[in-house]
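Contributing new records

If you add data, match the layout below exactly. Sequence lines come first and carry their own label; structure lines follow with theirs. Keep one chain per record. Anything else will be rejected by the validation script.
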Amino acid sequence: MLLASDLLTTAILGPWVPPAKAAARRQQVYLSLVHWYEAAKFMPHKPELRDAALFSPSIKEVRKYARVRQETWRSDWPVTRHSVLIAGLGMLALQRPEMELRTCPIDVVKAGLASMQLPERFVDTCLERFAVWRRAPRICVFGADVAPSSAVGGRMAKLLAPMPNWTLVTTCNRKTAWRVHDWALAHYIPVDYLGTPSERASRPLAAAVIAASDQVVVFEERKQKRFDHVLQTAKALKRKIALELYDAGAEPATQLTIA
């Protein structure tokens, strides 16, 4: 069972993102949920400050680091901070299942957050949304790396409109649909990674991703059968399937924008 005292002393592996002044993605270690919360005040516009915050040796120091740089916080922080805290709790729940964050009483989670000294009304609102996230679907996406942006954006917008809380299940190799991944991160959707960056895309890995998901979204060019094995596996596992077909020669894949 989760101990309230563990919630702010457990490290989190952050999402796969490029560090400041580098192109290659990596997972950075956040020493605590507070480090995640404070560093997010500089995401994504000040990656160098985000990364520097991670070197703060304690909760007290990372709070001080962020506080003295308040003029550089993201301008929408009062609106975004709810999603940031929920995403941090979600990442802990995914990475540390032994803490039982997905099933323990919400009051236990609230007790664990107490020393963050956040307004009680704000915490209660976050925990209401976190409780919804705990029951929300886990979604994986195939084919979005090459599908036209209009097809991906339209399908994902329609699919996600009724579900603001969900989890993206994905690989983290060169075949990963990083634009969907990055869009999800921009909205602070928790991400559950399977495989490693060096692991090649394969049918066993795809099957593992499907097995870890509740819903499978597939983008396929008409008259092609690139993802037949994905559809077959998803049907065999009785996963909900959303298939989006697009025509050859459609607009190329670009940066994804979903309203």
